[in-house]
Design goal:
The chain has one helix and no strands. It is rod-shaped. The termini are far apart. The mean pLDDT is about 80.
């Protein structure tokens, strides 16, 4: 019975890391698309 809480905490940590990295990559993608749009509109 002691393994189940440990497994639960591991899953919680992995899920939270996944959410954080997903949000970070989405913000990077938005920045890159904004930069590419600005570069293409300037000339």
């Amino acid at each position: 019975m002691k393994r189940k809480p440990d497994l639960l905490w591991v899953l919680v940590v992995l899920f939270s890391l996944g959410v954080v990295t997903t949000g970070y990559t989405q913000s990077l993608w938005e920045r890159q698309s904004d930069v590419s749009i600005k570069v293409t509109q300037q000339p």
